[in-house]
Amino acid sequence: MIYAGNFKTNHTRASTASYILALNSAIEGKKKDRVVIFPPISALDSFDISFTIGVQNAYPTQKGAFTGEIGVEQLDEFGIKTILIGHSERREILKETQDKVVEKFNFFKSLGFEIFYCIGEPLSVREMGEGKVKEYLLSQFDGIDIAYDKLIVAYEPIWAIGTGRSASVEDIRSIHQFLKSHIDKPLLYGGSVNPSNIGEIGSIDGVDGVLVGSASLKVESFLELMGSRDE
Ligand code: 13P
Questions:
Q1: Which positions are catalytic?
Q2: How far apart are CA 213 and CA 114, in angstroms?
Q3: Nearest alpha carbon, ligand 1 atom 7
Q4: Do residues 114 and 83 make contact, with C-beta atoms less than 8 angstroms apart?
Q5: What is the pLDDT of residues 54-99, one digit of tens each?
Q6: CB of 86 shorter than 6 A to ligand 1
Q7: Ligand 1 center to 64 CA (angstroms)
Q8: Residues 6 or more apart from 63 whose CB is under 8 A from it?
Q9: What is the value of pTM for the model shown?
């Protein structure tokens, strides 16, 4: 299993540092699972830890005149080689188009970054039925090299993000099977995953891990989530 925690715009530099150290001492030497944390940009640092730190976003540039963005020069300072691309909050709130997402994908792929590529349908598409959901999800791979060896896909239905209402086991199984038949890559589920539902979600065929927002924010909760899967 891959357990990824996306802090979004939560945590400070100080609280991230204590979280990361606490997480590291709790899991060191114990887990065969893969753990990845995506802290806010202001909290990036060089940590001596046994898991991966990734970045939630970056601009496809080494450096330059891109006010408010960060590029590879800033990531290199901390040895960051893992990036989240295509998260629905960037697509929907920050109006990141598929073309921009593809540009980022190609740029970070050319540098050998591990890419967590997010897809997910809005409620309006879900309400049109599963056929439309599948069509929509496939369209989010337009321009994306699905054969890239460092690609990890995360399916996060937008209506399940931050709502406390995860997709049903049946919905997840069906979409994951469908995606797996097209894309032979690790596939994570995200959207209101928590310590109570990880048991059933984590045991669905085709779920290789989870991308967790709210329930990753407290280290105790994230550890409980990882522990519950083993029970
Ligand atoms: P929640 O776990 O808060 O629903 O967020 C999921 C998510 O968007 C992770 O990227």
A1: 87, 156
A2: 20
A3: 213
A4: yes
A5: 999 999 999 999 999 999 999 999 999 999 999 999 999 999 999 9
A6: no
A7: 31
A8: 71, 72, 73, 74
A9: 0.97
